[in-house]
């Protein structure tokens, strides 16, 4: 995995640096100088790292790392909830669902913790700071938005 | 006894409609009682637009019918184009959302900046809460005391700026390119305060900017004002105006175009299609708030002095900005880019 | 001067001023702790309330609030690997690593103790620097500030992994950071760089969503996958007991802590460098104090010096940042700009007056910083074992709470969903870097210093052409930068020779 991660990073950065150089060439020199001065050496260094990684051996990790697919799924799911339901509702739903499904906690604990987190969140970020929280897409679509 | 009671009852009955008339609003006049009015600011907290909005938010409840709560929400991004887009496309026209944003947005619309999703003339304009006067100030110990002398200067005068789109940059740029003044503009300073430090260090010789932000330094005799743009304030009337030196009508028009948004320096709008009675009520409330003596005292202390320009006037000024011939706009865009 | 010092102290010790300071501390405690409650935003919100107060009271309140955020920001960094403030990110690297080894108490103790030392050093500097402050700040012009950014970047060498391979990776990470710093409208020509036609990217990438993503998200994944508590399988009871050990660590590495405090103060004094730089330079310097490559490898795995350095620096820079604000009216950071607004509101004009006529008020500010931090640290120590034992709670109970903090912390920068995407994206980048064994500190350094380096380079060249390279301070700084870069190499060779 370490080797694959290094490969992904090296290739990704080479692509980013390459794109940067390509895009910068069209700008006036004042705007392009810095990106070019960084982008070109970055591309070369990333290429060196890529070569190094390809030539090297895989280092076995101890202890063996499990897949990270599930945590990513939860995080992206949270983001989807925020977009679909709006931040405040998403926070309550996510915490409750996570505690029950992933945490396998009892109902009492889950509900109490969810209420506490949601209360603190709402009190601080909505009532005190008045952050704008757009209504969720789903709610708007269903005509339920406030 | 009965008669007395009857008399009192009769008087009470007669008075009741009178009392009700006092407390109930006239049919049709809007009331914000029990509601929350939100002012959306297109910048992060701490800047001038935000400070003005928060100052207004504190005194508006007194003067809005129904005495609602007024809160401020920040919606930064895209030099406040995001906030303007939101006000135009998303905010409901019920009078509960007021927007304030970059005064140069008319220029953004005029020069077809990518991402603009509004027509600034279609907002319901409350008005402007302040004027701004842009001046150029140079170090007091330089030998040039008037603009004429500066113009004749043989040595380059270095002016610091934050970047294109800010008045620190655009005002001297036009002086240099259109009037031929021997200026070198060095941009990239992170804030106008940093430029002042550079002035003290003699790294740069001056900066352009709003009179309000330069006043402490003028009072300290670090810099002195040399020339101003068309908008004026108390104490600056005698200062020469950049447009008056324009060599031709085209140059004068370009300078005027840059300066005009400063007459609507702190724009406040309601979403398009907000009903006229609500707009009128909010305009009145703004006018009264800005004249509120407590607000004036607080404003003086924080250097946020307000002056109300009603919506109708603002609309006229906007029309002036946007009704420009295409070739003028094209030439203007060569010098001025939309930015901060 | 002693008179003014005494007068300043008396101003703070009045009942009302002291009361307001306590209120400010109470507020600032939470502001620093919670990501998303930024010091600057909260200061802006509090400004209207100080209108009716006396100057000394108002400053006790504002400063009490502000001085404390740098201290408590370290707490979330250490306990959850989530920076409570952008200025507490460097504390995450070794602080959280210590927590995972079950040494949360020790890490917290070290963070708090070093914060106190840093705050005191910063405050003393503020008091002592008053006569020399003007010439000092005036000597550092744009060329010098550019060189300071280069010196900062030179620390990449010390922050990278070991060996040539580590160095290459460090420079790649830094290069990526520098490149990302160019996203947005450039201040030279107004070109929208790398914005992909979105309004969101016009003003560049905000630091907080990136930091929160790159540091916190990989740790959340790790915690999830491990399934146990943050402290792992540390023996019960060990976690909480380490606090005193942490304080003793501060003593053991006393001179390092002082040096890092001085670095923080110095960076704080230089307006325009931004608040996030000091902690990373201090961290880099702390890493340099490792005497052998094996020791050096410990940094990032939980070396207490990696907590002491940034812990001290992010507090001392507050005292430093007050200096240009008070002496010149030029704020050293956004929070200072708001504080400046407070000055004006109270009728005080920053500038030479604050160092002469109103010097007692200036000294009252110094005392406020010191006293506020003493109180905060004392209170934290009382709850330290309670705080540290959070790390023994089952991970799956904490993860949803931490994730909520991550997302809201990222959202409050711009109230834009784009920031959430940015956090997730850099979470992915951070995750890959951790798995591949790349250091993340050089990336952050590049991101933080990119704009400063570019802008000051342009200003220097535009203003002085090539002549700026021969200015005396610039040449000194070039030497310092070279020294910082080659130091690790010399260390290894010296070791080999005398080893």
Structural class of chain A: mainly alpha
Q: Would you report the number of β strands of chain A?
A: 0
The average pLDDT score of chain C comes to 84
Described by strand count, sense and barrel closure, the largest sheet of chain A is: none
Helix-strand string of chain A:
HHHHHH
Order of helices and strands of chain C: HHHHHHHHHHEEHHHHHHHHHHHHHH
Q: How much of the polypeptide of chain A forms β-strand, as a percent range?
A: under 5%
Structure description:
- The complex is a heterotrimer of chains A (146), B (340) and C (499).
- By secondary structure, chain A is mainly α.
- Helix content of chain A is 75%, strand content 0%.
- Chain A has 6 helices and no strands.
- In chain A, helix 1 runs antiparallel to helix 2 (29-55).
- The model of chain A has no long low-confidence stretch (mean pLDDT 85).
- Chain B has 340 residues and is α/β, with parallel strands linked by helices.
- Chain B has helices spanning 2-23, 48-63, 81-89, 105-110, 147-151, 167-179, 192-200, 211-219, 249-259, 276-291, 293-302, 311-322, 326-335, and strands at residues 36-41, 69-74, 97-100, 124-128, 134-139, 157-161, 183-187, 206-210, 223-228, 267-270, 309-310.
- The longest helix of chain B has 22 residues, at 2-23.
- Chain B is globular and about 95 Å long.
- In chain C, helix 4 (55-80) runs parallel beside helix 20, helix 8 packs antiparallel against helix 23 and helix 11 (207-226) packs antiparallel against helix 21.
- Chain C starts with a helix and ends with a helix.
- The model of chain C has no long low-confidence stretch (mean pLDDT 84).
- Chains A and C meet through helix 1, helix 2, helix 3, helix 4 and helix 5 of A and helix 10, helix 11, helix 21, helix 22 and helix 23 of C.
Compact overview of the structure:
The complex is a heterotrimer of chains A (146), B (340) and C (499). Chain A is mainly α and 146 residues long. Helices cover 75% and strands 0% of the residues of chain A.
Task: Please specify the SSE layout and strand pairing.
The complex is a heterotrimer of chains A (146), B (340) and C (499).
Chain A: H1 2-24, H2 29-55, H3 69-85, H4 87-102, H5 107-128, H6 137-141
Helix pairs in contact in A: 1-2, 3-4, 4-5
Chain B: H1 2-23, E1 36-41, H2 48-63, E2 69-74, H3 81-89, E3 97-100, H4 105-110, E4 124-128, E5 134-139, H5 147-151, E6 157-161, H6 167-179, E7 183-187, H7 192-200, E8 206-210, H8 211-219, E9 223-228, H9 249-259, E10 267-270, H10 276-291, H11 293-302, E11 309-310, H12 311-322, H13 326-335
Parallel strand pairs in B: 1-2, 1-3, 6-7, 6-8
Antiparallel strand pairs in B: 3-10, 4-10, 4-11, 5-8, 5-9
Chain C: H1 2-13, H2 15-33, H3 39-46, H4 55-80, H5 89-100, H6 104-129, H7 133-139, H8 142-154, H9 156-159, H10 163-181, E1 184-185, E2 192-193, H11 207-226, H12 238-241, H13 243-252, H14 254-269, H15 277-288, H16 293-298, H17 305-328, H18 334-345, H19 352-355, H20 359-388, H21 395-411, H22 417-436, H23 441-464, H24 472-498
Antiparallel strand pairs in C: 1-2
């Amino acid at each position: 995995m370490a080797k694959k991660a290094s490969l992904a990073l090296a290739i990704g950065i080479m692509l980013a640096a390459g794109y940067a150089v390509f895009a910068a060439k069209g700008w006036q020199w004042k705007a392009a100088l810095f990106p070019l001065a960084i982008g070109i050496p970055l591309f070369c260094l990333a290429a060196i790292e890529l070569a190094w990684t390809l030539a090297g051996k895989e280092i076995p990790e101890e202890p063996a790392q499990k897949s990270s697919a599930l945590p990513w799924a939860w995080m992206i799911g949270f983001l989807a909830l925020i977009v679909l339901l709006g931040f405040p509702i998403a926070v309550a739903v996510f915490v409750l669902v996570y505690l029950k499904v992933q945490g396998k906690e009892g109902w009492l604990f889950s509900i109490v913790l969810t209420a506490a987190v949601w209360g603190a969140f709402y009190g601080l970020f909505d009532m005190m700071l008045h952050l704008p929280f757009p209504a969720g897409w789903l709610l708007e679509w269903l005509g339920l938005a406030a | 006894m009965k008669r007395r009671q009857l008399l009192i009852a009769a008087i009470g009955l007669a008075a009741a409609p009178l009392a009700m008339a006092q407390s109930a609003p006239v049919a049709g006049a809007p009331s914000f009682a029990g509601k929350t009015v939100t002012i959306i600011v297109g910048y992060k907290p701490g800047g001038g637009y935000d400070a003005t909005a928060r100052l207004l938010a504190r005194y508006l409840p007194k003067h809005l019918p129904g005495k609602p709560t007024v809160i401020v929400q920040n919606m930064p991004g895209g030099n406040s184009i995001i906030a303007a887009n939101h006000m135009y496309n998303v905010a409901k026209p019920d009078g509960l959302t007021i927007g304030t944003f970059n005064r140069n947005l008319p220029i953004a619309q005029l020069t077809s900046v990518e991402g603009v999703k509004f027509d600034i003339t279609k907002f319901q304009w409350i008005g402007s809460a302040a004027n701004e006067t842009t001046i150029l100030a140079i170090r007091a110990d330089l030998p040039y005391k008037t603009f004429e002398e500066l113009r004749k200067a043989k040595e380059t005068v270095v002016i610091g700026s934050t970047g294109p789109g800010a008045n620190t940059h655009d005002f001297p740029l036009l002086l240099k390119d259109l009037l031929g003044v021997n200026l070198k503009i060095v941009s990239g300073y992170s804030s106008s305060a940093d430029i002042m430090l550079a002035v003290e260090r003699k790294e740069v010789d001056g900066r352009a900017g709003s009179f309000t932000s330069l006043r402490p330094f003028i009072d300290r005799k670090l810099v002195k004002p040399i020339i101003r743009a068309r908008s004026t304030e108390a104490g600056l009337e005698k200062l020469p105006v950049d447009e008056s030196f324009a060599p031709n009508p085209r140059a004068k028009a370009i300078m005027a175009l840059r300066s005009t948004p400063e007459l609507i320096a702190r724009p406040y709008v309601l979403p398009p299609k907000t009903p006229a009675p609500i707009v009128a009520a909010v305009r009145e409330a703004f006018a009264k708030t800005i004249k509120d003596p407590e607000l004036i005292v607080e404003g003086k202390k924080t250097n946020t002095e307000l002056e109300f320009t009603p919506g109708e006037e603002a609309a006229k000024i906007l029309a002036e900005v946007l009704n420009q011939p295409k070739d003028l706009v094209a030439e203007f865009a060569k010098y001025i880019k939309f930015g901060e | 001067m002693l008179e003014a010092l005494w007068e300043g102290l008396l101003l703070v010790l009045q009942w009302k001023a002291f009361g307001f300071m306590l209120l400010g501390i109470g507020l600032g405690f939470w502001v620093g702790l919670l990501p998303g409650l930024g010091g600057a935003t909260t200061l802006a919100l509090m400004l209207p309330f100080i209108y009716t107060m006396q100057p000394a009271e108002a400053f006790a309140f504002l400063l009490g609030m502000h001085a404390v955020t740098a201290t408590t920001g370290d707490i979330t960094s250490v306990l959850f690997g989530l920076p409570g403030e952008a200025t507490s990110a460097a504390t995450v690297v070794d602080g959280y690593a210590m927590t995972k080894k079950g040494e949360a108490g020790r890490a917290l103790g070290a963070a708090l103790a070093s914060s106190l030392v840093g705050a005191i050093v910063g405050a003393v500097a503020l008091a002592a620097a008053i006569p020399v402050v003007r010439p000092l700040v005036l000597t550092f012009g744009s060329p010098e500030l550019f060189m300071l950014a280069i010196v900062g970047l030179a620390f990449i060498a010390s922050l990278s992994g070991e060996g040539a391979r580590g160095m290459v990776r460090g420079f790649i990470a830094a290069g990526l950071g520098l490149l990302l710093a160019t996203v947005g409208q450039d201040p030279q020509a107004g070109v929208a760089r790398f914005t992909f036609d979105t309004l969101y990217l016009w003003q560049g990438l905000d630091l907080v969503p990136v930091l929160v993503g790159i540091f916190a998200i990989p740790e959340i994944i790790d915690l999830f996958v491990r399934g146990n508590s943050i402290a792992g399988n540390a023996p019960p009871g060990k976690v909480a007991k380490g606090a005193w050990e942490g304080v003793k660590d501060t003593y053991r590495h006393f001179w390092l802590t002082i040096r890092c405090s001085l670095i923080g103060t110095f960076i704080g004094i230089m307006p325009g460098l931004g608040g996030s730089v000091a902690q990373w330079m201090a961290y880099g310097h702390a890493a340099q104090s490792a005497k052998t490559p094996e020791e050096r490898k410990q940094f990032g795995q939980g070396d207490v010096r990696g907590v002491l350095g940034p812990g001290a620096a992010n507090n001392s820079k507050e005292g430093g940042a007050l200096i240009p604000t008070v002496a010149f009216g030029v704020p050293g950071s956004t929070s200072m700009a708001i504080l400046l607004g407070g000055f004006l509101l109270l009728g005080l004009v920053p500038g030479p007056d604050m160092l002469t006529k109103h010097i007692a008020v200036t000294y009252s500010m110094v005392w406020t910083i010191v006293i506020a931090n003493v109180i905060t640290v004392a209170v934290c120590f009382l709850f330290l074992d309670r705080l540290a034992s959070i790390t023994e709670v089952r991970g799956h109970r904490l993860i949803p709470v931490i994730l909520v903090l991550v997302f809201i912390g990222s959202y409050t920068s711009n109230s834009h969903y784009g920031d959430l995407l940015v956090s997730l994206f850099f979470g992915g980048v951070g995750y890959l870097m951790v798995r591949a064994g790349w250091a993340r500190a050089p990336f952050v350094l590049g991101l933080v210093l990119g704009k400063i380096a570019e802008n000051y380079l342009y200003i220097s060249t535009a203003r002085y052409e090539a002549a700026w390279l021969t200015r005396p301070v610039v040449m000194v700084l070039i030497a310092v930068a070279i020294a910082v870069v080659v130091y690790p190499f010399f260390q290894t060779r010296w070791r080999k020779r005398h080893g």
